[in-house]
Amino acid sequence: MLQQYNPKNENILIWVGNRLYPRNEAKVSVFDSSVQGGDAVWEGLRVYEGKIFCFDRHLERLHASAKALAFARIPDMPSIKRAVVETLRANSMTDGVHIRLTLTRGEKVTSGMDPRLNQKGPCLIVLAEWKPLVYENKTGIRLITSSIARNSPRHLDSKIHHNNLLNNVLAKIQANQAGVDAALMLDANGFVAELNDTNLFMAKDGRLSTPHADACLHGITRGLVIEIARDMNISFTERNLSLTEFYNADEVFATGTMGELTPVIEIDGRKIENASGMKVLEAIRDKFQQLKDTFSEPLPF
Question: Structure pTM?
């Protein structure tokens, strides 16, 4: 497994609803919408050296996802920030931390699909763990193409960062069975969408490309890479990209809060070989590291 259990997390405190609980007491009701139907939204946050990376951008996306799902009484950003900060403070966490921030539609009065059964308002969960980057970014990762396609906006819009992750889980199962690190997922038309957990970029002859955010999440790190490329005058396009183009790219890399910028070294048995010798990923990664502080919000403790 890429992610391992860390004994340091045995006694963490977790925010559920409106207070902190010890790990073994942190629970939601069996009537909670996340249990009943995966009816929740979430964000992954990372804490570096006393600062939360892209805090506002993540909370804005959380709010947008909750609004798209017509959540009632969505907690405002200051109250969510207070819960996150209080959780980090209680656990004395200031660095090397990953936060799984979840907002469920809340508890139902009886089991059922109808959101009108959710009459207590949303439930906020702040799960902060000591956790390193999920991928080894020096050696890179290997991929296979999944037979599971990413959802189109006609089915379940990937721009809603929701908890119904079975589409991605099925792809990850295929990757596990193939003995590789992650699964590359196509859209309904056969173009590359993203990995089962992160966005994808490719570089060819110094030009950077990424799939349209049609069947993939508009990732926070993805957006920063696009901003960096434009600021560095690196030629960049968002377009439909086929597997063949990725097989023959000079560089391929994944982007996400969980792993930052991760080189892809193989797709479906094809080695990614840098014929041009140009190092687009290295340039963008260096700039990304420099800008981490700029895009982070200091903790008030």
Answer: 0.95
